[in-house]
Amino acid sequence: MTKTLGLIGAGNIGSALARLAVAAGLNVVLSNSRSPETLADLVTELGEQARAATPAEAAQAGDLVVATIPLSSYDKLPAAALAGKTVIDTMNYYPDLVGHIAELDAGGLTSSTLVQRHLADSRVVKAFNNIDYVRLFTAARPTDAGDRSALPIAGDDTAAKAHVAELLDALGYDAVDTGTLADSWRSEPGTPVYVQPYLPAQPEDLSDEEKWHWFLETPVVPVPAAKVRELTATTVRRTAGDTRGTLSQD
Ligand SMILES: NC(=O)c1ccc[n+]([C@@H]2O[C@H](COP(=O)([O-])OP(=O)(O)OC[C@H]3O[C@@H](n4cnc5c(N)ncnc54)[C@H](OP(=O)(O)O)[C@@H]3O)[C@@H](O)[C@H]2O)c1
């Protein structure tokens, strides 16, 4: 059972996960690219279950560790400190935002496989990558709630996936196992399960400012496990980095 969640990255996704984890009774150790001091406001907001540390310290402290930084910095993740750990990879490949990664542009490799290559002594599980950071927080529901959503997870280690599924349950989600890291393209940007199903249709003719307010305020559309299974099973592979049709916030 996870008691402490280590977070490498404390931005939109990292802070949403930290809030859910604290609400679920877990301790969180947060880190970013600057220094623990820069996370003081977030730590204060989260309360006594939270502290800030360096990425290597967050890696060592976590029973589970989340890597939630721009994918362009994946090779900065502290591989030695993460050795032996299960690492949740939330990262998506948006070359226009974070720059091109030649191995992914060459085709055939999922972004999570690349992360696993860097973290050769860790067990990488892809999760939390297919829902936007607002809905990640607002869609969470207790086990057995009628409007609970599911999220896909993928990884090469069965026990690690079970551990991550347990975390998802504690944070408010069902998990749907979509296969190995090589299969994890099924939830990458541009696929049917990516972000859009958790949102209602956006009204037409909104200004940019109205679109932003709509994104922040629109309620979640619950996506049950059966729907996640259907969407991930029927998808067709895209070229890595082809993010057409996805929301720019991701
Ligand atoms: N935004 C979404 O809705 C969404 C949804 C699903 C998945 N994702 C994916 O999840 C990841 C995080 O997204 P985000 O929106 O949370 O990003 P974000 O708000 O830009 O936050 C990124 C965080 O990573 C930290 N960071 C950057 N480089 C680091 C390093 N080398 N070591 C430690 N920490 C580092 C940053 O710290 P500093 O501020 O100190 O630089 C910051 O705390 C991305 O890969 C994104 O593609 C995002």
Task: Write a concise synopsis of the structure shown.
This protein is an alpha/beta fold and 250 residues long. The protein is built from eleven helices and eight strands.
Report on this model:
By secondary structure, the protein is an alpha/beta fold. The protein has a single domain, classed as NAD(P)-binding Rossmann-like Domain (Rossmann fold), CATH 3.40.50.720. Helices cover 34% and strands 14% of the residues. It is built from 11 helices and 8 strands. It has an 8-stranded mixed β-sheet, with helices on both faces. Strand 7 (150-155), helix 9 and strand 8 (174-177) form a beta-alpha-beta unit. The longest helix is centred in the middle third of the chain and has 14 residues, at 158-171. The model has no long low-confidence stretch (mean pLDDT 95). Bound molecules: NADP nicotinamide-adenine-dinucleotide phosphate. NADP nicotinamide-adenine-dinucleotide phosphate binds at residues 8-14, 31-34, 55, 68-71, 73, 76, 90-92, 129, 132-133, 249-250. NADP nicotinamide-adenine-dinucleotide phosphate (NAP) binds next to helix 1.
CATH fold-level topology: Rossmann fold
When the domains are counted, the total is 1
- Which secondary-structure class do the elements indicate? alpha/beta
Terminal residue distance: 30 Å
Order of helices and strands: EHEHEHEHEHHHEHEHEHH
What is the number of beta strands?
Answer: 8
CATH architectural label: 3-Layer(aba) Sandwich
Which runs of at least 5 residues are low in confidence (pLDDT < 50)? Answer: none
* Percentage of residues assigned to helices: 25-40%
Biggest sheet: strands, sense, closure?
8 strands, mixed
- What strand line-up does the widest sheet have? 3-2-1-4-5-6-7-8
Radius of gyration: 17 Å
CATH superfamily: NAD(P)-binding Rossmann-like Domain
Tally of separate helices: 11
Q: Which ligands does the model contain, each kind named once? A: NADP nicotinamide-adenine-dinucleotide phosphate
What is the approximate shape? Answer: globular
Mean pLDDT: 95
**Could you name the CATH class?**
Alpha Beta
Residues in β-strands, percent: 5-15%
